[in-house]
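Q: My labmate handed me this sequence with no annotations at all. I'd like to see what the chain might look like in three dimensions before we decide whether it's worth expressing. Could you predict it?
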Amino acid sequence: MNKLIVIEGIDGAGTTTQTRLLVDWMNASGRPAHPTREPSDGPVGRLLREILAGGHAPVAGATMALLFAADRMDHLSREIEPALARGQHVVSDRYYHSSLAYQAEEADRDFVAAINARARKPDLTVLLRVDAQRAAERRHAAGRTTERYDDLALQERIAQNYDRIGGMTIIDGEKSVESVQEALRREVEKVCA
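A: Here is what I predict for the chain of 193 residues:
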């Protein structure tokens, strides 16, 4: 049975790099895998990316939570479920744990949990734990533009929210890219035997 694998972490934790490397390895090792991300590349996801980059007037926290939940349901029906049905594993750079960590900072956590309750449960969720200051340094070194959630104090609170969520496998994201990838592969081999 094909699996939904999610890689989570604060901005600058390495989720995008690790997703790409993991999918390459899975495909090379005979485990067909489809990479994806949230916000998705669908219509709601594109709108969210514009908002995150400051391309629109300020949007209320509860509205952001609803938009992320809407994108997630669209993402599931448009991309994740079809890939699984085609016989591929799906590796997602973020999923509903991000909403519980990020949007719970600007909307009621129970509300955020309720609007995401129908999202498919991942078979494996890995949290790449990285110190917020270290993650900020990585974002700066990569030349990334500042987005809605990039304030250091906010990223520290989001990191604490991730720790409170539970149900995720934790990997030290401050280790080398190769070490993190090796740890990820070990976890994937447990669920994709």
